[in-house]
Amino acid sequence: MAPPRVKHLLWRICRDCLPSRRRLRQHYVQCSLFCPVCDLEVEDDWHTFFGCHVINSCWREAGLSSIVDHRLQIFSDAKSLILDICSREENKDAGRFAMVLECIWKNRNNIVWNNNREYLSRIGIQAYYNWFDWFEAREVQVSNIIPQLPLVWTPPAEGWLKCNVDAGFSRHYQTTNRSWCIRDNLGRFITAGVAWDTGLMSPLEAEALAMKEAIHNAIAMNLIKVIFESDSQVVIHGINSTVTGNSEFNTIIMSIQRLLSSVTNFEVKFIKRQANMVADSLVKAANSWSRRSIVNVIPPCIDTLLFNEMN
Q: N or C: which end of the chain has fewer CB within 10 A?
């Protein structure tokens, strides 16, 4: 159960036509034999996906160690291991496994052609969420149900507060920016927060950190009945899932889960980006404030947006 492009990759591996460096040399292509990821061993299909010590963490971060690790002791070629998993494991697990293979191959090609390396600890978790997003979209198509998420900000029920959260990057300042804004059931501004850190972290980590900071501040202010909204479906799904791992993203997600377990009447929800424009505008203006700031007066950058969304 995986996208057609991923199935095509499996077909190429099983038909022995994936252009690993060993195979390229067999066809008289003048290139290095060594793996572009570790630069230590000869690159063939097995090494690319299972033998390279650098990519071992991918399977753990994707939550697939239980179906991969013991097979590494049984099989010695990629084709046999792939066919065994696809024939014996549940369709969803086989699909997630195949998605990790694709992400590993994409990372390898990105190194070869662009000299751009992804943190290997992120590949496994990113593959998991890539598969989840594809599966969700597929389920919608199969059931012919279109999710009716609002395209404009909607106020919470009476007695509740709503906190919109976002993250982004400033190429000019080379910073990772985060923001949150709390409003009541009439759309009235309560408070907001902005933060920025030097350097560009991964988008997933930035969105998760923004959510963590928003929840932490709400707890510090002794707020109750708060709905936290983010336009990052990956972050919301991560908070509501039980997937664990050692990546920085997973560490932030687990800290969010601990915060939520310490309070009642806090909810996290996914929304469309169009309904998250106040938080988005604060992110873009975050460098106007000091590194971490609580804002108790309506900032000019969101004044018009707040007025429009109240009406």
A: C
Nearest to 210 by CA among 190, 188, 186, 194: 194
Q: pLDDT for 163-178, tens place per residue?
A: 999 999 887 898 999 9
DSSP 255-282: HHHHHHHTSSSEEEEE--GGG-HHHHHH
Helices 300-310 and 277-284 cross at an angle (nearest 10°) of 170
Global pTM? 0.64
Name the amino acid, one letter, at 23: R
Name the amino acid, one letter, at 78. Answer: A
Partners of 269 in beta bridges: 229
Structure tokens at 74: 């049984």
Q: Per DSSP, which regions of 199-265 are E strands?
A: 226-230
Secondary structure of residue 142 in the 3-state scheme: helix
pLDDT tens for 295-308 read: 999 999 999 999 99
Whole-number average pLDDT of the chain: 89
Phi, psi angles (nearest 5°) of residue 287: -70, -5
In single-letter form, the type of residue at position 263 comes to V
Q: Calculate what percentage of the chain has a pLDDT beyond 90.
A: 68
| C-alpha–C-alpha distance, residues 181 and 179, integer Å | 7
Residue 35 burial class via C-beta count within 10 angstroms: exposed 0-12, middle 13-18, buried 19 and up: buried
Cα separation of 288 and 213, whole Å?
19
Phi, psi dihedral angles at 116 (to 5 degrees): -120, 115
Count CB-CB contacts under 10 A for residue 113. Answer: 9
pLDDT of residue 256: 96
Taking only the tens place, the pLDDT of each residue in 148-205 is 666 899 999 999 999 999 999 887 898 999 999 999 999 999 999 999 999 877 778 8
Q: Are 260 and 228 in contact (CB under 8 A)?
A: no
Structure tokens, 188: 């009235």
Task: Give kind and range of the element (H or E) at residue 215.
Answer: helix 203-220
